[in-house]
Amino acid sequence: MSKFILVFLIILLYLLKIISSNSSYKNLLTLAFNANIATKGQFPFMVLVNGTCGGSLVTPSYVLTAAHCLPICKMFVKIGEIERSSPHWIIRSVSKTLEYIDDRFPYSDIALLKLNESVPLSKEINVVQLPTRIINIDGLQLTTVRFGLTENGQISNELRYVNLQGIDLKKCQLIVNKYYPYTVLSSSHLCAIPNPDNPNSGICDGDSGGPLVIKGTNILVGINSIASPNCSKYLPDIFVNVSNYLDWIQYNIKNE
């Protein structure tokens, strides 16, 4: 073996050792990916909240999102486009935030945003359909819509979607006990896992508040709430169970 090849192999092994010991590289390698790029009008209810979270248009004047997306500063939403860089977004400021308040544990990660002005509905902008009953999602095919991190560790410019499979809450809790410290699930949660043919898919940073719908429909069953640790593959993602809050959603939309 020539000295050149030997030196090359030593350098290569050294670089691999650095990568394997660096947590940021590990996180990068386990980021959720294999998300499909959405087309215009495919998810007309998808809303970008403050540029950092997702949301779902439930009426022309209200957006449903995760409560942990609520900042202290003034809020705004963008709707109607599928690229962050597009200059054609319809933008509305948020005139009021309504967070579900409950003293019981665990925390309810759901909020309504009242827009300062309603948005015009079209093929590119439309409301999501709320469920009319509690839906058992165990084994059900689902789709989550996202603008968050991609496999290269960068925030996506394109709207993307990932197909997942619902999992029974009790099964999910067994996994959560092992991998998600201090996370307790209840009827206010839903869990979804990657499909076997696409194990590297799921939600990640920047996807909070986005919709989880029944695949092939606009029926909203969940709100993106907790991504798996380090956006790891194979582990379940946790969503707010929208069915659990239907009365609260409808009451506030009607009475505000």
Structure commentary:
By secondary structure, the protein is of the alpha+beta class. The protein folds into two domains: 46-127 and 245-255, Thrombin, subunit H; 129-242, Beta Barrel (Thrombin, subunit H), CATH 2.40.10.10. Helix content is 18%, strand content 28%. The chain is built from four helices and 13 strands. It has helices spanning 3-21, 23-29, 169-179, 246-255, and strands at 36-37, 46-49, 53-59, 62-65, 76-79, 90-99, 111-115, 141-146, 160-167, 189-194, 211-214, 220-226, 237-241. It has a six-stranded antiparallel barrel. Strands 2-3-4-7-6-5 form a six-stranded antiparallel barrel. The longest helix has 19 residues, at 3-21. The radius of gyration is 20 Å and the shape is globular.
What coarse outline follows from CA principal-axis ratios?
globular
Quick one: CATH class of the largest domain?
Mainly Beta
Helix content: 10-25%
Strand content: 25-35%
Supply the helix-strand structural class: alpha+beta
Low-confidence stretches: 3-32
For the biggest β-sheet, the strand order reads 8-9-10-13-12-11
Kindly report the average pLDDT value: 83
Number of domains: 2
Ends distance: 78 Å
Total helical segments? 4
Please summarize the sheet with the most strands.
6 strands, antiparallel, barrel
Keywords: Disulfide bond, Glycoprotein, Hydrolase, Protease, Serine protease, Signal
Family: Belongs to the peptidase S1 family. CLIP subfamily.
Signal peptide: 1-21
Domain Peptidase S1: 18-254
